[in-house]
Amino acid sequence: MQKVITFGEVMLRLATPEYARFIQSNNLNATFGGGEANVAVSLANYDIPVDFVTRLPENDIADWCVSDLRKHNVGTNRILRGGERVGIYFLETGAVARPSKVVYDRANSSISSVKPGMFNWREILKDATWFHWTGITPAISQGAADTCLEAIKTANEMGITVSTDLNYRNNLWNYGKTASEVMPELVEGCDVILGNEEDAEKVFGIKPEGFDSHKTVGEIDATEFESVCKQLMKIFPRAKKVIITLRGSINANHNTWGGCLYSDKFYQSQRYDITHIVDRVGGGDSFMAGFIYGQLTYPNDDQKALDFAAAASCLKHTIYGDFNLSSVKDVENLMKGDESGRVVR
Description:
Blueprint: E1 4-7, E2 11-15, E3 29-33, H1 35-45, E4 50-53, E5 55-56, H2 60-71, E6 80-81, E7 88-92, E8 101-105, H3 121-124, E9 130-134, H4 137-140, H5 142-157, E10 161-165, H6 179-187, E11 192-196, H7 199-204, H8 226-235, E12 241-251, E13 254-262, E14 266-268, E15 272-274, H9 283-297, H10 302-316, H11 328-335
Parallel strand pairs: 1-4, 1-9, 2-7, 5-6, 9-10, 10-11, 11-12
Antiparallel strand pairs: 2-3, 7-8, 12-13, 13-14, 13-15
Helix pairs in contact: 1-9, 9-10, 10-11
């Protein structure tokens, strides 16, 4: 049985209801989310054994979080307890021309004070075939970056596939290091690299000639990103596959969505026209989880893995919260062209 381990921070998500602004809200909806936890929940929904590794405090909010992950069949036995608090992020969902807003309240969260040696990575990874992390984790603190590197090196020694979602978050890199200083050493140990149309530029200065993500008007030419994939593989020769998610933003409620992949050749997914977005947070995480599932389920078919990832993340845009609660059957139906949304009786 193939098993996946993900490592990162899970937070309490407090979101305004519907499309209300922070200033007009009298209540907030509480759920949980975070890049690597989102990936873990998706994989668990696809019946892939998965453990989520993090550090949480000894309090009722952390217990609630662990219970929620267990509800989704995510393994939590490797979660380390200790530290001060659960991180929080506040979400105001945008509409039409008004963008969504995220406000972080995660300073001094339990995972920010982790250090190498706290986790027994050889024990954690002993039954795993895949290890996943995102660029959010090393942005939290130097200790989190060092611990993530420790995990990657252990996975490399054990012959475990390592993937990353570059996930650049400018507001998180505030402990004295930049992403460009920290990320290269970590990405060097990765077999699979995922990014969006801006991540490679923000972290490594790589972008298609003349591309501006704010002027896509819903249309992104995937072939422009073949050079980005090739440049990343040249910088990081260990990488066997580089994937770029392609979001064409017409407005906050209407996006086009798909992805491209470079491995032995250049692949493109189907492009989806998502006209009424319910919740786009976690879209990239659902894409990554879909691709991991595809690689584990049909390892010799990169096109099918990419198509599964794109369909899975398309469905995520229709689901409230960070977690993609779609099944394999849901995704496969969309891959077959069933976009009708008709009632299933």
